[in-house]
Write a structure and sequence with these properties.
By secondary structure, this protein is an alpha/beta fold. The protein contains 15 helices and 12 strands. Strands 3-2-1-4-5-6-10 form a 7-stranded parallel β-sheet, sandwiched between helices. Strands 7-9-11 form a 3-stranded mixed β-sheet. A two-stranded parallel ribbon has the order 8-12. The chain binds nicotinamide-adenine-dinucleotide and thymidine-5'-diphosphate.
Length: about 375
């Protein structure tokens, strides 16, 4: 009773409280929908990466009373520059560490209300060159976080996943949705699929209050310049060519990163536990369409295109049906592809030192290995 009152005074209705009572399943689910948490203390993992850092900015701006602990190992993809404007904010704390470190994770999880797991090895091409870290971080790291969440009072856990777990589509296949069977085809997507299965298993086996989101390709500020958008934009700014894999006819569905952050926020506060939500941008484009658009907006011409050897096992098409999150939580993308692309190009133009620092380091070794130059 005391626990309940204490939490109410802090505007909390805790999942853990309800988990201790045996309600009929349907009733229990409805109660969980009401769990609109405020004053949340969130453990964000991988918050120094692309989407994680955008998410931290999004939350601190929208919820003045939330607090964030950012656990990040600062791999090649982690960059504290992404968060330098909030480094002195009293609501934000950075911890350098690995999600595979059991003791550290356990200590951090004790002190938070929810965990949002962004930490991952995230680049398909790197997973093809060497998949070991993908299995370690994406699978073992997620397992470690789930264990800590379970052992510290069944903490609310949101797992960030990808549409790539569903495999790929032919040109006329229906879009992926929450019922699409898993069929990953790269070491990256296979490791993400494994982590999704573990997350779901912790819901069924231990009643851990989890949600999963499977999102399509993101783009926007702070994206590491190994992925299509920032690689092509910055190469053109450097007067280099853009390396298009194969015939450039592979299709991705693109979502501006801020829209992804808004969807995660909604799921965290209003989503039904045990559920998966597919998130997409309603913006299917071939790589060639994107390449030509970027070239045009950057004032270059098609002589900047260089066709290079195709990615092994290159997934043909991704497309997402996001009608579930639209219907249940009222989410849909707000930023059109055209506006998002303009904003993204502007950001890279205005933040040259950010990407030049990255491109001058270890990156060059990777570029030589991947593109043979
Ligand atoms: P990213 O590579 O930019 O960032 C990953 C972050 O995780 C980095 O800061 C890195 O330092 C950190 N990290 C890696 N291993 C770690 C470990 N062992 N312990 C602690 N921190 C570690 O990735 P991103 O593009 O921001 O993707 C974030 C999440 O979103 C990933 O789980 C990815 O699978 C998923 N996702 C990405 C996209 C996309 O288009 N980028 C789309 C859908 C889903
Ligand atoms: P990427 O940004 O790596 O995302 P993902 O593979 O996770 O979808 O690649 C997006 C698309 O762009 C994909 O079809 C591969 C293609 N691509 C190129 O053609 N050239 C490149 O140099 C890169 C990095 C990607």
């Amino acid at each position: 009773m005391f626990y309940f009152r204490y939490m109410r005074t802090k505007h909390f209705i805790r999942y853990t409280f309800f988990d201790k009572i045996t309600f009929p399943r349907k009733f229990k689910k409805n109660i969980r929908t009401l769990n609109y948490l405020k004053n949340m203390k969130i453990l964000v993992t991988g918050g120094a990466g692309f989407i994680g850092s955008n998410f931290i900015h999004y939350i601190l701006k929208k919820y003045p009373e939330d607090q964030i602990v950012n656990l990040d190992a600062l791999t090649y993809a982690g960059n504290l520059e992404n968060l330098k404007d909030i480094s002195d904010d009293s609501r934000y704390k950075f911890v350098k560490g690995d999600i595979c470190d059991k003791d550290l994770v356990n200590e951090l999880v004790k002190d938070v209300d929810v965990i949002v797991n962004f930490a991952a090895e995230s680049h398909v091409d790197r997973s093809i060159l060497d998949g070991e870290n993908f299995v370690r971080t994406n699978v073992l790291g997620t397992f470690n976080l789930l264990e800590a969440a379970k052992n510290n009072g069944n903490k609310r856990f949101h797992h960030i996943s990808t549409d790539e777990v569903f495999g790929h589509l032919g040109p006329n296949d229906p879009c992926f949705n929450e019922s699409t069977p898993y069929s990953p085809r790269s070491p990256y997507s296979a490791s993400k699929a494994s982590s999704d299965h573990l997350v779901r298993a912790y819901f069924h086996t231990y009643g851990l209050p989890v949600t999963i989101s499977n999102c399509s390709n993101n783009y926007g500020p702070f994206m590491f310049p190994e992925k299509l958008f920032p690689l092509f934009i910055t190469n053109l700014m450097e007067g280099k060519k853009v390396p298009v894999y194969g015939d450039g006819m592979n299709v991705r569905d693109w979502l501006y990163v801020e829209d992804h952050c808004a969807a995660i926020d909604l799921i965290l506060r209003k989503g039904n536990v045990g559920e998966t939500y597919c998130i997409g941008g309603d913006a299917e484009k071939t790589n060639m369409e994107i390449t030509k658009k970027i070239i045009e907006l950057m004032g270059k011409d098609e002589s900047s295109i260089e066709y290079v050897k195709d990615r092994p096992g290159h997934d043909k098409r991704y497309a997402i049906d996001f009608s579930k999150i639209k219907k249940e939580l009222g989410w849909e993308p707000k930023i059109s592809f055209e506006d998002g692309l303009q904003k993204t190009i502007e950001w890279y133009k205005n933040n040259e030192s950010w990407w030049k620092n990255i491109k001058s380091g270890e990156y060059q070794e990777y570029y030589a290995k991947q593109y043979g130059k």
